[in-house]
Structures are given as C-alpha cells and as structure tokens.
Write a structure and sequence with these properties.
Blueprint: E1 13-16, H1 22-33, H2 45-65, E2 70-73, H3 74-84, H4 89-100, H5 104-111, H6 120-124, E3 130-132, E4 138-140, E5 154-157, E6 160-163, H7 173-184, H8 188-191, E7 194-197, E8 211-215, E9 218-223, H9 229-238, E10 243-248, H10 261-264, E11 274-278, E12 281-284, H11 295-313, H12 322-327, H13 334-341, H14 346-350, E13 358-362, E14 365-370, H15 373-379, E15 388-390, H16 403-418, E16 421-424, E17 427-431, H17 435-443, E18 447-451, H18 454-460, E19 468-472
Parallel strand pairs: 1-2, 6-7, 9-10, 12-15, 17-18
Antiparallel strand pairs: 1-19, 3-4, 5-6, 8-9, 10-13, 11-12, 13-14, 16-17
Helix pairs in contact: 2-18, 3-7, 4-7, 16-17
C-alpha cells in the first residue's frame, strides 16, 4: 500500500471492493475451469456474509476518519467500463479479452454472443453463468477468488500507477481486470497515469503488500515469494530518482507459505513485517531485521532451543517415537523428520539468517547490500531508532518476564497486527484483539481505530491495508 510520506498528507481517492458470496464457492470452482487445480472450499455462506458486513464496516471507518475521501467500488468501475462501450464492439471485445486473459477464439467458443452482454458480476464471479464445454462437464466463468485483497492489484507511486503481476495462475485475472478498467474507464483513463505494467515484463512479479513508500525519495519492496528481485529492479528503473530497498523474505521453497506461523511471518508480505504508520515511524516484527543488533541471532537461538526440546520430548506417541530409531541405530525416515520437526528442521532455521537483509538499487542498478534493512534506513537518516515500534510492544514491558514471553506475543499477534491500514500520519485502522501492539502504537502517538475483523481474517486472509487501493492522497 502507498503509505505515509512527508509530502503526502492523507488519502483522498482509493478503490475498494467489499466482496460478495462468490468467496464461498470461488476456490472449489477453480477446478472446473482447470481440472488439475483441486482446492477445497473452506468457507460457509455465513462466513462470506460476515466478511461482507465487516468490509462495509471498514469502509464506514475510512469515511469517518477521512470525510472528504472518494471511494470507487471496483465492481462498479468495471460495470461502468463495460456500459461505456456497449455500442463500440471493437473496444468492448478488447475489454472482455483483457479481463479474461484468453485468446479470443477460446472466449468466443465458450461464450458465444454472451460476451457482448457480460456484466461485471459475471466477470468477477458473483453471478457466474454455467456453460457447457463440448460434450464434457459444465463449467462457469472462472471467478476471481481474492479480489477482496484489492491493494494487491496495483501500487500508486508519486510518479504514476504500477499494475502488479502475480506469479500464481489462480490469481492472474485480478490485474487483467484492473488493467481493463484503468485503460478504458472514462474517468480513470483521464486521471490515472499508468507508469508501469508489470505483466508486460517477463518473469517480473510484484504484489502490493510487498511495496511500501518510506519517504519522499525511498521505497521498500520485499523480494522472495510472490515478489521477485526482477520486479524490484523494474520498479527501480521506472522510478530512477528513488532509492529502492529490496528486502529479503523467507524462501518459499523451504515450505513457509501455508506452513508454520513461525516462518509464515517472514515469507508472506512486507506489510506483515514492516508498515509505515506515521512520518518516520514504523511498526515492525521484532528481531528479524537484526534490530537491535544481534536480534536475528537471538531469534535463531530461540528456535534452536525449541528444536532441542522437540528432539527430546516429541512426539510422545509410541508408533512415531523418534527415540526408538536412535536406540536401534537406524536412520530416521525423512517423512518422520519432517513430520516431527516441521519448521524446526535445521535448514529451515538456518534460512532465517538472510531474512531482513537488503539490496539497495538506484536506477535499476544494485549499489549496496546490507545485513539489516532497519540499520540501512537509520544509516541513510530515513528512520530514527526511537521511532521503531515492535509488534507485541516493548520487550522491556513489565508484563513480560522474559524476552521469550515477548516473542510469543509478537508471534501470536504477528502479521495481523502489522498489517494496519494507514489512512493519514498517525491514524491507522487495526484489529481490536492485537492488544499489546495497539498499546505500543498509542504509546508512540499513533491512534489505532479498532475493528473486529474475524471474518476478514478467516475468509479474506488479509491485513486491513489490503482492502484499500490508494490512487492518490493529495
């Protein structure tokens, strides 16, 4: 999300999307269009309706905090775009083709004349027509399952808008629809400058949750899973007057994505570890950026200690007791090692040593590599140490008897606590049950407006800033 910078006061215009009941069936419907994909539906209609109500509540809070803000609904923008060109079949064909990302013969064969009358609800998946595919199974128009994470579709910079590019097939249509809107909607095409379309750059992936404006002339982009180094380099070329800090996340190949929360915190998105909440104030996950100095080593030592406890005591069930293999002098089966130790396997713990390190780029060229992102910001006089706010609060808080207790709290509040929505300097929307983190924000002069958001986390799987895509703030 485009967060607070010195010359940018408060959010004025943004795109939102409250979502709908397509969330209930979108995941399982994917396998109809692509039989190899077989995710299971995880949500009930109650969950989807709960999410929709919370999304509306979030928008109300935004309007209360910023009464003059203009919020564009994503689905409405798409519908207005389609309606604008009903009599211009050439342009309409281009819009529909862009939204689906398919070759036109496939669209025409599948939809027939229906393409001329498609609605935004049908394209997104709220009202998905069932269509017969040859003599085989029936399929619907592939829905857009995570469109509620609207900030992932693009990123607004002071020089123009960047259309993002996801590495996963099942989310690929999100940016395609956004592109169709920004290039053809009568208001958007006249008022939003398209600086860069990452989809036109081969292998250059970028997601909004990995991007953060730190100051007038510096930007952080987390690289690893979802966002690649090549993407950060392309952004650096497009913003030649800015310094780009490419921050290393946890390597997805070691199983962090969808795995243990011990590693998920460091692989998900930059906004799950680092979020600007005021001018020169940042909320971040403790220790991973090696701040204070030695923090990352302390974190690794803690996990190694937990691994030793696991080696000695877990699991207790007789049929999978690892000690029987040791006593018999037999090699422990690989499946059992992974089952027992999970995130505590040595190679997974060792991989943390590179998380939070940073590559620094200017005009597409790497100019430096540093061991700590926070140290780099402090050295470059962008951030002051006293303005670093920890998820979980201060380790020296009297409520914590040991650093371990602080880390457990930080781990529990974690990505949800860090992914606040910064509406203007010192004013954020935060989940109400991130108690210690919210206390820390208030102590540092940042006002958190609290929201429940239980269904947002269950159905949307996102932080609060994911629900808003800023277009401009001045």
């Amino acid at each position: 999300m485009w967060t607070v910078t010195k010359d940018v006061d408060e959010l004025k215009v943004a795109i939102v999307y409250p979502g709908g009941l397509e969330l209930k069936w979108a995941m399982s419907a994917l396998k109809a269009d692509h039989p190899i994909i077989t995710p299971a539906a995880r949500y009930t209609e109650k969950d989807a309706k709960g999410f929709l109500n919370e999304a509306k509540e979030l928008q109300k809070i935004v309007k209360d905090v910023l009464p003059s803000i203009k919020l564009f609904d994503f689905k409405d923008l798409l519908q207005e775009t389609l309606d604008e060109y009903r009599d211009d079949k050439t342009t309409l064909k281009n819009i529909v083709s862009t939204c689906f990302g398919w070759d036109w013969p496939r669209i025409e064969k599948l939809l027939g004349d229906l393409w001329k009358y498609l609605t935004a609800s049908q394209i997104i998946g709220q009202d998905c027509p069932i269509l017969k595919h040859g003599d085989g199974f029936k399929i619907g128009i592939r829905p857009v399952p995570w469109l509620n994470n609207i900030s992932e579709q693009g990123w607004m910079t002071s020089d123009g808008f960047i259309i993002n590019n996801k590495q996963t097939w099942w989310r690929s249509r999100e940016e395609e629809i956004m592109k169709a809107i920004l290039e053809h909607h009568p208001v958007m095409k006249e008022n939003v400058h398209l600086l860069l379309d990452m989809g036109t750059k081969n292998g250059c992936y970028l997601e909004g949750g990995d991007c953060c404006a730190i100051s007038d002339d510096s930007t952080a982009i987390a690289i690893g899973w979802q966002t690649y180094r090549e993407g950060a380099i392309e952004v650096s070329k497009a913003l030649p007057n800015q310094t780009i800090y490419a921050v290393h996340k946890y390597p997805i190949e070691l199983g962090s994505g969808g795995g243990s929360s011990l590693l998920w915190h460091y692989a998900w998105h930059l906004n799950g570890m680092f979020t600007m909440v005021d001018e020169n104030k940042v909320l971040c996950t403790p220790y991973i950026f090696d701040w204070p100095k030695g923090g990352r080593k302390w974190l690794i030592k803690l996990l190694e200690t937990l691994r030793k406890d696991f080696e000695k005591w877990e699991p207790l069930r007789k049929e999978s007791n690892i000690r029987k293999y040791r006593e018999a002098g037999k090699k422990i089966p690989e499946w059992l090692v992974d089952y027992i130790f999970g995130p505590f396997r040595k190679e997974k713990i060792d991989a943390i040593k590179d998380v939070g390190t940073v590559e620094i780029y200017k005009n597409g060229k790497r100019v430096a590599v540093k061991d700590s992102f926070l140290d780099a910001l402090i050295e470059d006089e962008i951030l002051e140490p006293d303005n670093i706010i920890y998820v979980g609060g201060d380790p020296n808080d009297i409520d914590y008897k040991t650093e371990y207790e602080h880390y457990v709290t930080a781990l529990r509040e974690g990505i949800w606590a860090c992914s606040v929505a910064t509406l203007k300097p010192g004013k954020v929307i935060a989940y109400h049950d991130m108690i210690k983190t919210n206390e820390a924000l208030e102590y540092h002069g940042v006002k958190p407006v609290r929201i429940d958001g239980r269904y947002m986390r269950k159905v949307g799987l996102f932080g609060l800033d994911s629900a808003i895509l800023p277009l401009w703030r001045k």
